[in-house]
Specification:
With 268 residues, the chain is of the alpha/beta class. Helix content is 21%, strand content 29%. The longest helix is centred in the first third of the chain and has 13 residues. The protein is globular, with a radius of gyration of 18 Å. Bound molecules: acetamide (ACM).
């Protein structure tokens, strides 16, 4: 199976221009699953919730329609981020569309910084679904810092985690080695590049270095911090199936939830 990412600087507020950029980026890519950055058709730094609403789309809006058409035409699956509108709720969401037209969505559950004022927090557990013969889940950007996100996807059977991102902190790429090691799972972190300074006193520089990480934490591909382009690697998703560390230890079976009091409880 060929999995990849595309890294680029979205233009804030211009969905059609970003779809055009993605069309030309993806044109030459041969892959089975391609992951695009978080909020890849809108840009990231919204001034207020009105601006989020103005750039929001229902799941059958232009971004996901575009992705479905491309996935069907090119026979690959495509994952990326968009602003999802559901009634008057606004989510920082990811889509995953398959060549035969299936659409899966994920609503970011751990909102980062000012996102907490702009978006509604995701209201559903991360799901695992089957696509291209592989069990796949999604998380978005800052979800990485909560090990629970990827652990849930692992326990639900994921072999591959698609991870659209707009990273501004420098830690995620290194941390993904640990996330993939402790879960024995593949991950594609598709990050954006560029700078946005639309909010007084808040200049955001995105860290690029999109990365494909394998079980045992091996980095299979990493982009430059400022390059535009796509990278694809070949993997065997079944390499994520064994959770054995040695003949005596298994990463799932050896957990001792009865000795982790409070870890899985609801918030007080
Ligand atoms: C982030 O979650 N976009 C940092």
């Amino acid at each position: 199976m060929r999995i990849g990412f595309c890294q680029f600087p979205p233009l804030f507020g211009n969905i059609q221009a970003n779809l055009d950029s993605l069309d030309s980026l993806i044109k030459e890519v041969e892959a089975d699953v391609i992951v695009l950055p978080e909020l890849c058709t809108t840009g990231y730094q919204f001034v207020d919730r009105n601006e989020v609403a103005n750039l929001s789309e229902p799941v059958d809006g232009p971004t996901v329609q575009w992705a479905r058409n491309l996935a069907s035409k090119r026979s690959f699956s495509l994952c990326g981020g968009f602003v999802e509108r559901d009634g008057d709720r606004l989510f920082n969401s990811a889509f995953f569309v398959t060549p035969n037209g299936d659409v899966h969505t994920y609503r970011k559950i751990h909102l980062f910084n000012r996102e907490t004022e702009l978006f509604d927090p995701g209201d559903r557990p991360p799901q695992v679904f089957q696509a291209q013969g592989t069990r796949i889940g999604m998380m978005i950007c800052f979800d990485w810092i909560f090990p629970e996100t990827m652990r849930c996807l692992n326990l639900a059977g994921a072999q591959l985690v698609c991870h659209p991102s707009n990273l501004v902190l420098p830690y995620c790429q290194e941390a993904m080695k640990t996330r993939c090691l402790e879960n024995q799972i593949f991950a594609v972190t598709a990050n954006r590049i560029g700078t946005e300074s639309r909010v007084p006193g808040e200049t955001l520089t995105f860290t690029g270095a999109s990365q494909i990480t394998a079980p045992y934490g091996k980095v299979l591909a990493r982009a430059e911090e400022i390059s535009i382009g796509c990278q694809v690697v070949k993997i065997d998703p079944t390499d994520a199936d064994s959770k054995n560390v040695n003949p005596y230890n298994n990463l799932v079976a050896d957990r001792r939830p009865e000795l982790y009091p409070g870890l899985c409880g609801a918030k007080k």
